[in-house]
Description:
This protein is an alpha/beta fold.
Amino acid sequence: MHAVINGISMAFDDLGSGPAVVLIHGFPLCRKMWRPQFNTLPDAGFRLIAPDLRGFGESDAPSGPYTIDLFADDVVELLDYLEIDRAVVGGMSMGGYVLFNLLERYPERLSGACFLTTRANADDEAGKARRLQLAQDVMKFGPKAIAESFEQILFAEETLVERPKLVGEVYGWMIGTDSRGLAGGLLAMRERKDYSPLLGSFTLPALAIGAEGDRAAPPDKAREIAEGIPGCRLCIIPQAGHMANLENPGAFNACLLEFLRSIT
Length: 264
């Protein structure tokens, strides 16, 4: 499906019926990453909304500038378009940064928050420099510059060795992404806010999911979120890396569904 959202065509899937759950993909990915959840959540009685953020997947990729604020505004506009007042929102990696923004700026639109292999802290100066260099590289050399940088850190070591087909599929999503979206996403993440000091102020039901083999957002980052947000639940997924929902969908879905059923 497509809708005109804040002046761009946004692609999204809208599956099932029941309490709404919005899943926001990470960088440099797209909504296809939620494939293991496409049937599981609707079959369990939930309405799953999975958008492609601007610049990614099948959504338009304007020249920019891109910001985390803008990504969050797009999600809220999509909720308005779908006539959804409130939803549980889950964000993976970059999607988690969008979720923090939503919690701060649009808390009335959320009924719960799921932080999925993400982190609360902002980039340090070295991280910001890497983001800027990657943004320049992708505009000069194309999406392959990003795909080759991220392929190794998105998966657990055993996944890279044992599941080359899955790794190759995700690589294909990355090289199929518009360079403007990749550069824009990098610069948006570079300038994101540090939410670590604000964790204690969030009062919505929350879940943090980490993964044992995650090299991009180590499991301690999920623990920090869970310890900082009052009442936040924690799951650490075994035999999985940054793409925990794809690498170990059984454990991931069980944790997510247990949380969703407890708050709806």
